[in-house]
Amino acid sequence: MNIYVSNLNFSTSSESLQELFAAYGKVTSAKIITDRETGRSRGFGFIEMPDDSEGQNAISELNEVDFEGKTISVNVARPKTERRSNGGYNNRGGGGGYNRNRY
Q: Full-prediction pTM beyond 0.70?
């Protein structure tokens, strides 16, 4: 089971997150997501637990709990969606539009 944990303290480590979830069962991985450019935590992470019942128990017990000074949110992780290519325009719109309203 893949678990999404948000509203983490920016100083939370993958190790401390793994320790928190290990109290509820076997944890195969714990990862804090970091910014590519700065390396700083983005305030969320993912936990993988092989046993779904242990994962469900961890979610119900840890959701909305105070951890390292922040009230964390714990949910089943949704699958990553494909990012659509937008031709490199960065969602800032395309060009053109000159005399668009001309009759």
A: yes
